[in-house]
Amino acid sequence: MRKTYRILADIVAVAVVIQAMAMVWAIAGLFHWLDSDGGSIDSAVLDSWEDDPPDFDGSIGFAIHGILGGMGLPLLALILLIIAFFAKVPGGVKWAAIVLGLVVLQVFLGYTGFDVPAVGLIHGLNAFALFSCAILTARRAHPTDQTAMAATP
Fold this sequence. Notes:
The chain is an all-alpha fold. The chain has helices at residues 2-35, 43-47, 60-87, 92-112, 119-140, 148-151.
């Protein structure tokens, strides 16, 4: 169970990285589409985005970010918390709960950003906090101390 706990926490961290990569790909593709390919965005394009998204390189990044952030990460964080009760990692339940809390906050901030774009600043900052906590959570389940001093003979 410790190994499962560690792997799930690492997967949460990797998922945060994938989300950041997908979002940058999507925004860069959008700007390229607007600037070089003559694309345009108006309210009609935005209203029909889910049913008929624009076709530009990177547009799938928006979907990756939304699906992973809206469903994938919350599910992973919830499973991590459930596993934490059985993994017998010192402080494991607390750290898994912190990860879940940060994921819930991240989802809330993501959806709030549609109405208050400045919230995107906190959404980006919280992603760093979530990534860091997920890494720290995974390290708690390592069988040995992971410091440089422990690695020296």
